[in-house]
Design brief:
Blueprint: E1 42-46, H1 54-66, E2 69-74, H2 79-87, E3 91-97, H3 104-109, H4 141-155, E4 162-166, H5 180-183, H6 200-210, H7 224-247, E5 252-256, H8 260-267, E6 278-281, H9 294-306, E7 313-317, H10 324-336, E8 341-345, H11 350-361
Parallel strand pairs: 1-2, 1-8, 2-3, 3-4, 4-5, 5-6, 7-8
Length: about 350
């Protein structure tokens, strides 16, 4: 499986190392429902495996439901998986790579659609960090049309319940601190080779808006208006795709960076202002060298920023938890700070399901 869903492949799906039997975990006082008497709604990110049998899926998804999972974000299309999930009363959503598009035919037919950094290098032939970082420019109407068509095609399928946007952002101008060693980079400032998008269309759009040539000013990376321009470019893509989903009467959600502040600062995501039905911030504490308790802080910041506009599901990265007690704590921190549920990435084994079930019902 090609992960992910992160920034850069930093980890691997090692699964949880379970050091404690789950029954030994002290249960905390989490009610079955949130303060609005709504049932917790948990999610799973997964890639459908063609080898799964109908019987195995039936059993797996029924167990998921029993543990409190209510929806699955599938990274690829698979009618078998979607229909089995629905049969088990789970929502089956398609998880879509959005602005990071490495499709060969697209690269060959439209290299001009790809984002350019402050040095003028294009993601079409000089991707940053890793070869699969092929970012499209969000300011181009052709890019938006292309993505609208992709969402339309996905949602036209009767077994697809919703669309889940991933990689809906600029490339990381600053990587999460845990990755600096891995790439031998000290990103204490916004370096030109990682700062996007300075293509002709973005430059012209900014000039038309502020009557300023962005490359003519000293320190363009510090311009607040230029940052705003780029937040709005992503907002416009999301809200255009939200209109498509709305017209199909299907929900749209997104996987985003962990807090509104971090998301704006390192990938130009202003997700508080997106027209979504829900958001799943990747509150991957290990990537930021944070403790499990930070999950609660990140959830609280996001929930406060959203002010009830749509629910937040705390994205948890299972390999970051050292043992089952930590995972229990992570889920507890998320739910107690206002998350409507959690979204899990990693090996969803029986221990994980029992922890989830335990957190939701005690
Ligand atoms: Zn551009």
């Amino acid at each position: 499986m090609k992960t992910r869903r992160t920034f850069i492949k930093a980890g691997f799906l090692a699964g949880l190392s379970i050091n404690l039997p789950w029954k030994a975990i002290a249960t905390s006082a989490i009610p079955l429902t949130d303060k609005n008497n709504k049932e917790w709604k948990h999610w799973v990110w997964t890639h459908p495996n063609d080898k799964d049998t109908v019987e195995a899926l039936q059993k797996r998804y029924e167990r998921y439901y029993q543990a409190g999972i209510r929806g699955i974000f599938f990274e690829a299309d698979s009618e078998k998986h979607f229909r089995q999930a629905k049969a088990a009363r789970l929502e089956a959503h398609r998880w879509m790579w959005t602005l990071n598009q490495g499709d060969k035919s697209l690269l060959e037919s439209h290299p001009e659609w790809y984002a350019k950094n402050r040095k003028g290098e294009s993601c079409a032939d000089q991707p940053p960090y890793v070869d699969y970082y092929r970012w499209l420019c969000p300011s181009r109407p052709e890019v938006i049309n292309y993505l609208e068509q992709a969402v339309t095609d996905i949602l036209a399928k009767d077994y697809v319940d919703g669309i889940h946007l991933d990689y809906i952002r600029f490339s990381d101008v600053i990587l999460p601190v845990n990755l600096w060693d891995k790439y031998s980079i000290e990103q204490t400032s916004e370096l030109p080779e990682y700062d996007y998008c300075y293509c002709e269309v973005c430059q012209a759009g900014y000039k038309a808006w502020r009557d300023t040539d962005i490359l003519s000013i000293p320190y363009p990376q510090e311009s607040l208006s230029w940052r705003l321009y780029r937040y709005r470019a992503i907002n416009h893509v999301v809200n255009s795709l939200a209109k498509v989903a709305k017209s199909k009467h299907k929900p749209i959600t997104a996987a985003v960076f962990p807090t509104p502040e971090v998301a704006k600062r390192i990938v130009r995501q202003d997700w508080k202002n997106w027209d979504l039905n829900g958001v799943a911030p990747m509150i991957y504490h290990g990537f930021y060298k944070e403790e499990v308790s930070w999950i609660g802080d990140a959830v609280a910041e996001g929930v406060q920023g959203l002010n009830g506009r749509f629910p937040l599901y705390a994205g948890l990265y299972l390999p970051d938890f050292k043992h089952s007690k930590e995972l229990h704590l992570g889920i507890t921190y998320a739910l107690q700070n206002g998350a409507a549920g959690v979204s899990l990435f990693g090996d969803i084994n029986e221990e994980v399901l029992q922890i989830l079930e335990n957190a939701a019902t005690h």
